[in-house]
Amino acid sequence: MLDLDFKAALRSLARSPGFLATTVISLALGLGAAASAFGVIDAVRFRALPFKDADRLVIISEVPADQQGPCRANCIVSYVTYANVLRVIPLRTLDATEAYGFGAKSLDNGDQPRLVFGGITSPGLFGLLGVRPELGRAIQQEDDRLGAPPVLVLSHDLWVSQYGSDPGILGKAIKLSDSHYTVIGVMPAGFDYEVGSQFWLPVVPILDPSTHPTIRTITVLGRLAPGRTLAQLNAELKAIDPAALVAAGSSAAPTRLQAAPLRDRYTSSTESHDLIFAGIVACVLLIACANVANLALVRALHRQREFALRAALGAQPARIARGLWVQHTVIALIAGGLGLGFAAWFLRTLQSLAVLQSLRPSGMEYRLDARVMEFTLVLALLVGGLLGLVSARVAGRSNLQRLLREGAPSAGGGRWGSRAQKLFVVAQVASAVVLLTGAGLLTRTAFHLAALDLGFNPAHVAQGTPSIPHPWRVKEKYVPVIRQIAAELAQLPGVAATGLRAEVPIGSSGPASPVAVEGQTAPLSKTLSPASTFSVSPGYFRALGVTVVSGREFSEQDAENAPQVAVINEWAARHWWPRENPVGRTIRIDTAPSLPMAVTVVGVVRDNKAAQQNLLLAELGPEIYRPWEQAPAYAVSFFIRATGSADLALKPMREVLVRLVPDRPLFASLLSDQVRDQLGGVRLNALQIAGFALVGLFLSLTGIYGVLAYTVGRRTHEIGIRGALGASRGGIERMVLGDAARLTGAGVLIGIPVALYSTRLIQGMLYGVSATDPMVYVVVSIGVALVSLVAAYAPARRAAKVDPVIALKAG
What we know:
Number of strands: 22
Number of helices: 24
Strand content: 15-25%
Helix content: 40-55%
Structural class: alpha+beta
Distance between the termini: 40 Å
Radius of gyration: 34 Å
């Protein structure tokens, strides 16, 4: 029986190619969006983590004792806490506790040194994750002790790309930065834990043998013992004596330990993105389903005479309903197949984005897999069934006698059908308003950020940051090297200015603020006091294009034994000495715990974000600059302002840094690229929402057009009477356009409050614009209204051209 229904459905759809194409395309967009959303959310929230006993894996973090709630980001533990507490105090709720860190080294493979990223791991990490090396062995306890021969494990990708999958790699020595390591293993393909690791080293051998390890923090994983719960583990961590953490030396301030599921580490990184994405897709799917339901309803209403005749000839209502269900299921399945193609493309695009690749380990990628296909199939069958029910309801209300008597193709269900159509269109318009409002807010954010005054000029500027070797990190060794680098960079051809910058934390002096300014009796509050100062060279402000607004910048005379001086930014000048000239005033800075130093302000520079990690969204605050010679530090970044393209200066800059700081990781880039990359993330969010919003608007306009076209067809007789009684063509056009305006207005009035509520989700992604920005709402409302009237124009023109004589005869 179903075979006959299936063949009949294909014949019926073949007779209506326009209906078939329109419904399939509309539904494919909705189902494809839904499949994409499920693929994104499933990858992080539902799919099993790609590790053994993943449901028992937890991450342990160390947080301030007064912090409320779980750790949401930067969930780490100080190394001394891990070594002196977690590895010493037995925890009955855990059957394994391991740790790892992440860093960079320079790989010397006989050609140009290459920057590679890798991890340091405790011996049991690979076993905890249930992964074995493809070749050789993993890191063992005997490798993780002071004095042990340095060894490493390679990733599969690095083994293939740098060593040609050489099976004899085991036992060979590889130079990473300034040390040689013996290869003991190669991990299987696809394993790069945590994210992007190309090699792994044991922890202890690379520690500084002194009492101050170079590893400050580390990420700690644990595995719950069988039958134990996360609540029991947190209770056991809470019971650890806080004095033990302080005694470990991790921090002078009280801290506490807490645990959370490992999955939280990855869900928190994209939580806002996932929720917003799901909401966008829900709107698109609603619009698509409403649009297809509208088309199905129109077609069913036009087929009422056919349904009535079939019923009069003996066809059972169940048979008619089953045939309609098969027809719409076929449509939904075809649309689902096309939608999966769209989802596959979209998920591949998301997966290729570097910002998303750096958030999760291999195995948690966005991809079109069997789970996504099953979800899409179920959703397609559900949508097809619901569409079949809509048509079956119309078929069940068909009455042959009334149709023959009244002659209207919709007489059996015209009022119900018309009301349903209008409700569908109102829902579509409201959803489009919500999507377009979100897109408008993010677009305004992108424009604000693109025009944002950073306070410096990143064009033509190259930045290079070398990693100073540990033995050099004493003043007598790094100062001459840094001076030599600065001198050679200044001599490079095509260089207009050079400078360097280092960040130096301000020493803690107890509960009081470590910064005090002349003219005030109390130290500055935390909100007015910077946590660090910036040590810069005399040419730094010129290299970055930062304007000196008063006083002077540093010069070569500001040497180590010269009077101690400082430059502050405009924000500090405004808040520390309102309406006064700060030049010549004195600042007391704790350069070390309880060692205050008085420095004289010699200049004020323009507020700028050059020293902020987030160049776009960082908030302005107080900044103190000191001459690098008076406050030297080894962790410096060098800057070159080129007279021409900064690309041409980047290579010679790299060569100088590699030669003078050999065998060390080097980070070098263009400042303009950093700004572009950060702005690119904002633009991506805006483009995603704008793309879905335009799809939703297109589907909404299709729905408006369909309803008005059908309404005009139903009202041909009425329109003919109006024309016969003297109604002008303009009046008939205004009548039809008025119907469109009422539907659009209702949708806009419903959509605005929904948008006001839903756009709160993206408040954190906005800059320079409020989630309630009236301009966006007004522009979206007017835009939707105008575009809707454009969609209604063709049916209105058709109505105005109705010949009254022909219409009256047809009636």
